[in-house]
Amino acid sequence: MMAALAKAISRATRTNVDVETLKVLVIFSGAGLLLSLVAAMIYGQAANAALF
Predict the structure, then answer these.
(1) d(CA 25, CA 46)
(2) C-alpha span between 48 and 34 (Å, rounded)
(3) H runs (alpha helix) in 1-52
(4) Cα distance between residue 50 and residue 52, in whole Å
(5) pTM of this prediction?
(6) Closest residue by Cα to residue 3 from 31, 25, 23, 24
(7) What is the pLDDT of residues 33-51, one digit of tens each?
């Protein structure tokens, strides 16, 4: 699946995309999304408590 995704990105952007590079990008993007969701949940509750 990653190879097919890398091939599709390579064709769309006309640049050479390596599968390993794509894996690292997906891992860091997922980790950033997870951290931002956790921060939003923590600070969202704090802001909610401050309003009421």
Answers:
(1) 32
(2) 21
(3) 2-13, 19-51
(4) 6
(5) 0.62
(6) 23
(7) 999 999 888 887 766 666 6
